[in-house]
Amino acid sequence: MVKLTVDLVEGAMQYTNPLKDRELDLRGYKVPAIENLGSTLDQFDTIDFTDNEIRKLDNFPLLKRLKALIFTANKIIRIGEDLVSSLPNLETLILTDNNIAELKDLDPLIPLNKLSFLSLVRCPVTLKMNYRLYVIGRMPQLRFLDFKRITLAERKQGRSFVKHLAPITKTDSASDNGNKSKAGAVKTFVPGAPVGKKASDENADINAASKFQEKPPSNEQQPARDFPQATLHAGVKRVIMSGGNSQDLNAIQDAIKRAKTMDEVERLHHMLSSGQYAGFAAHWHKQQQQSQQQQ
Questions:
Q1: For the region Disordered, what residue ranges are annotated (predicted)?
Q2: How many helices (H) and strands (E) does the chain have?
Q3: Which of 59, 183, 228, 293 sits most deeply, having the most CB atoms within 10 A of its CB?
Q4: Residue 70 has pLDDT above 90, yes or no
Q5: Would the pLDDT of 222 be above 90?
Q6: How far apart are the C-alpha atoms of 219 and 161, rounded to whole Å?
Q7: Is a pLDDT exceeding 50 seen at residue 230?
Q8: For the segment 91-104, what is each residue's pLDDT rounded down to a tens digit?
C-alpha cells in the first residue's frame, strides 16, 4: 500500500484550476492516511484526494491558505477534532461517497466557521432521520449542502430542530474519544475544538426528533417546495413535502431491499434522497403483480 511520502507530495501534479486557485492533485494513489502535508509549505488553495483509501480525516499541519478539500470515493468513517486549528480558512469540503454513518460524527465540523460548502452525497449518514435538518441546525455557516442551496425556510427549521437535541459537552466528547482510542493513546484538548455526546443521549435525541416530527409547520407558514430534503429510515415519515405519501415511501424502501443490481440500488437511492418518488407505490405494486403472474 502506497504511503503519502514527502517525495510523492512534491512530485504530484500541481496547477491553477478554473477558479484561479492553486491545486495539488493527489488522486488515485490509494494512500491509507493523511501525512507529510507540511511539505506543501502551505502553497495551495485546493488539495484533491479523490479515489484513495483514507479512513480518518485528520493529521493536517497548519494550512492557512487551504480553502478546499476533495475526498470523493475514500473510506472516511471519522473526522478529527482538531480540524479548525489546522484548517482555519476551509470553505469547501467534499466527502461524497464515503462511510460516515452517524450524525454525531459530523460534529467536529461545527467550529469551521468559514465552511460554506459541504457534500456528503452517497454517505450512509444521509439516510439518518432528519439528517439535513441536523446538519443545517448544527452548522449555520453552511450555504450549500449536498450541492443544494440552503433556504431560509430550512435554516429556521434547522434552528428549531436542534433546540430539541441534547447539548454537546466537552466531557461527553472526551469520554467518547477515550472509548474509541487505543489503550495508552494520549488525547490533547484543543481550545475551540468540537465536542460530542454521550451514547446515553441518543435516545433523548430520538425522542426529541419524534416530538418535532409530530408538529410539522403548516402550509401557510412554509410552502411545500421549501421543506428540507431529508431522507429517513424505514417506517419514519419524511420531513419534506415531496408530493409522495407514506405508501410511496414504504414502496421505494421495499424496492431498494429487493434490488438485484447496484445500478438499480443507486437509481432508487437517488429517487429517495431527492424526494422524487410521488406515485411510486402504484408503479411498484403493478410491477410486483406482473412479476408474480410471470412466475
A1: 171-200
A2: 9, 10
A3: 228
A4: yes
A5: no
A6: 18
A7: no
A8: 999 999 999 999 99
Strand stretches in the chain, DSSP E: 13-16, 22-25, 46-48, 56-57, 68-70, 78-79, 92-94, 117-119, 144-145, 148-149
d(CA 83, CA 94): 15
> What is the Cα Rg of the chain in Å?
21
Please write the tens of the pLDDT for every residue from 134-192. 999 999 999 999 999 999 999 999 999 988 776 665 544 444 444 544 444 444 444 44
pLDDT at 66 over 70: yes
Half-sphere exposure of 35 (CA within 13 A, CB side): 11
Contact 21, 67 (CB under 8 A): yes
In the structure grid, which three cell numbers stand for residue 20, read together?
A: 484561479
The phi, psi pair for 117, rounded to 5°, reads: -130, 120
**Other beta carbons within 10 Å of 98:** 24
What domains, with CATH codes, occur in the chain?
6-127+166-201 (3.80.10.10), 242-295 (no CATH)
DSSP one-letter code for 12: S
Alpha-carbon distance of 21 to 12, in angstroms, equals 16
User: Taken in order 110, 112, 115, 119, is the CA torsion positive or negative?
Assistant: negative
CB proximity list for 97: less than 8 A, separation 6 or greater: 72, 73, 74, 121, 122, 123
Close Cβ partners of 147 (under 8 Å, ≥ 6 residues apart): 119, 121
* Three-state secondary-structure class, residue 37: helix
Q: Three cell numbers at 263?
A: 445500478
Q: Shortest CA distance to 139 belongs to which of 158, 122, 120, 164?
A: 158
